[in-house]
Amino acid sequence: MADNSKQVHLNNEQNQRFNLITRSLHEVLGADIVKQKISTGEQLKCYWGTAPTGRPHVGYFVPLVKIADFLRAGVEVKVLMADIHAFLDNLKAPFELVQDRVKYYTKLLRSIFISLDVPVDNLIFVVGSSYQLTPQYSMDSYRLAAMTTEHDAKKAGAEVVKQVSSPLLSGMLYPGLQALDEEHLGCDFQFGGVDQRKIFVMAESLLPKLGYAKRAHLMNAMVPGLAGGKMSSSDPNSKIDFLDSAADVKKKIKLAFCEEGNVQENGLLAFLKAVVLPIAAYKQLIKGASPFAAQDAANDFLFSVTRPERFGGSLHYKDYDKIEHDFSTKALHPGDLKKAVEDAINTLLDPIRKDFEADEEFKAVEKAAYPPPIDPAAAAKEAKKAKNEAKKNKTKASAATFQQQSVDSVADQVERVEIPKQ
């Protein structure tokens, strides 16, 4: 973790807060800004944004575990439901559908934080369109556009905005608007993955030119998906959704890349390091035991791999490094690791699934946000049926019209007949 902080004196309690806020991060830009705020005793404010498009998957645990550290350190965390950003990013979803997904994300994220036993008093959800359509924000976006080149906009969003052969102008607006969010959300630092570094650097450069304060930027490392590459909402086999059943989890873990002895690009090991072990340590601290350790393990163990005695008996771990060592030396078999990670993920998801099943509003919001896919064959059949029905109705209408016209014509002719006088 890089730390480019200036000399700001912190007492022991303040240092503990700073260390909690910055631990396990890949990089920190502007640590002095965070330290200065802590040293004065002012409320430290953070913002983290997510575009409500695809279904959130367990990869979200990675930033949420870090946000949990912020909340424990007394930081006010604003979670931006970036509906405008979602719409701008190559129209990934219709804007009307995005509004339903905002509601679903809000419900789900709150449920996740509660399941992690994280204090949520300082957790605030903000919908982007609530302020991004105001005159001041619009004027700021025009001012920013006047000082940003096409090259810089493309470069800043290269790792975040979907890249296509003929990019829309909307995708180039995305990075600058994310920079403006820091000012309009009133944060002291923005948090995100290291893939957003170029946007963060752009923000540090542009905001002072607009007359606004420079913010700090805290970045998580990227965690590989189950297939070994980036965990993606568009690849169903690389991710596990928060509402996936235990059977779905088992199926997806079975397909995960996990070559014996290979610790590189291993999504299962990365998930243990970034998510399971930090949660285990916190649960152990507040509840006296880790939910991921076997019942026969001592209370100071965080994670267990349960296996029969004929295969060497169960393994119990106090830290991640020993897990990685055992896997790299082939003392821990991929099959046993997969089963242990499967159990850990189900332990994490169980309270969220129960919350969902007990909340009718939660279920209704999920259904509206992600309506079932349309079967092309069934849709074609319905369209043909509707077309035939329309044709039949048109024929009936034409016949009725002709009949009425005939009656009207006869009536008209009767009216014109001169009846001879007697």
UniProtKB/TrEMBL annotation:
Any GO MF annotation of the entry: ATP binding
Short name of one Pfam family: tRNA-synt_1b
Keyword terms: Aminoacyl-tRNA synthetase, ATP-binding, Cytoplasm, Ligase, Nucleotide-binding, Nucleus, Protein biosynthesis
Name of this chain's protein: Tyrosine--tRNA ligase
SUPFAM superfamilies, per database record: Nucleotidylyl transferase
InterPro entries hit by this protein: aa-tRNA-synth_Ic (IPR002305), Rossmann-like_a/b/a_fold (IPR014729), Tyr-tRNA-ligase (IPR002307), Tyr-tRNA-ligase_arc/euk-type (IPR023617), Tyr-tRNA_synthase (IPR050489)
Cell compartment(s), UniProt: Cytoplasm; Nucleus
Compositionally biased residues, Low complexity: 396-412
Organism per entry: Wallemia ichthyophaga
GO cellular component annotations of the record: cytoplasm; nucleus
Protein origin, superkingdom: Eukaryota
Annotated catalysed reactions: tRNA(Tyr) + L-tyrosine + ATP = L-tyrosyl-tRNA(Tyr) + AMP + diphosphate + H(+)
